[in-house]
Amino acid sequence: MKKEASVILAKCAQDKLYGIRIEKRDNDWVRTWAFKLKEETAEKEGFDKINFTGSFYTDEEYPGCPYCGAKKCFVCGNCGKVSCYDGSDKVVCNWCGSNGTAADDDGKLDVSGGGF
């Protein structure tokens, strides 16, 4: 049986791009793997144009960000892009610089990959 999978574009606090492989399991998306990614490759593969809505969870084997090791990430309320999350109360988007206070969610997220 073929698995439904895709890649979410994310950015580390070290200002480096990486891809997060997500896999459909039942009706949820699960983060299964992360890998370093160059801007040119992300654009060529169309990762910057991928958008997802749904529940996102983390597989136990998920290695986290390939640069800082963060296993958590957050979606910016301003630009909709994904950044590493270190678990602190304050968050700063690694894409647009917006900052705010972290809040628990219900697992439902809108994820957008556009623009570098």
Automatic annotation (TrEMBL):
It comes from the Bacteria. This is TerY-C metal binding domain-containing protein. Pfam families: TerY_C. Residues 63-112 form the TerY-C metal binding domain.
